Amino acid sequence: MRLAEPPGPATRGTPDASERSSGGADPEEREDLEDLDELEFDPDAVSDPDGPAPRIVAFDIGEVLIDESRVWAVWSGLLGVSPLTFAAVLGAAIVQGEDHHAVFPHVAPNVDWQEFEDEHERRYGGFQEQDLYPDVRPCLSELRSLGFTVVLAGNQPARRTAQLRELELPSDVVITSDELGTHKPDPAFFAEVLRVAGTDDPAEVLYVGDRIDNDVVPAITAGLRSCWLRRGPWGHLQDLPDGIEPDLVLEGLGELPLLLSGWGEDAGRSGGP
Ligand SMILES: [Mg+2]
Hints:
- This protein has helices at residues 69-79, 83-95, 103-107, 117-124, 136-145, 158-166, 177-180, 187-197, 212-221, 232-237, 256-261, 263-267; strands at residues 56-59, 149-154, 173-176, 205-209, 225-229, 248-250.
- By secondary structure, it is an alpha/beta fold.
- The longest helix is centred in the first third of the chain and has 13 residues, at 83-95.
- It is globular.
- The N and C termini lie far apart (47 Å).
- Magnesium ion binds next to loops.
């Protein structure tokens, strides 16, 4: 079953969601991802599972570092839609491989939500300490104390970059798609992650993300290590396509430093940071 066409006029343009989609700015130019098994994947690019442990950990931002609940709660309030209805429609869009933009014409068919973007931003107020998942600071801090290089790199609009830096998270590099000029799942994004991390060996980098389509598959395809963090709407609703095996699948970040420092022992691999 697919979402029925909304009764109102179709909306266009870039949404003010905190994480950009994989499909570009214009929903009408986007190819819906109906089946994750259709994702392009080059098995020859996968790093040797018995290779050395990664020494660089790169984190996606939305639903990995930042709990986006407030983003959507503010939208549901602005559009006069109950949080339950809003969340359910968003979930349906994700399951159907649609962009999160698809939620707007369905929950508010007679409203041009883009006219509310400034008011949304005013009420949301940008990334705040309360939006951080509680395991983020301890995880990043421990990784750095263990000698790992920590990179924060995700799809984010320009206005979020300064907000993220103001949180002063324990990290070596903070960079967003707007600054890089490329966004996930484009392979160029992951090439840029390597560049800012100071390595030309993708196997040295573990990319931690919540989305199969934007994070896990393109990271593996680019030769990086991959950790699928199963939290947030995408993390709960997406499934791994056949043949895709992240190095790690976690439900939180609490265990990550221990798993990385014991990479060789637990996973039959050798080496350290
Ligand atoms: Mg994310």
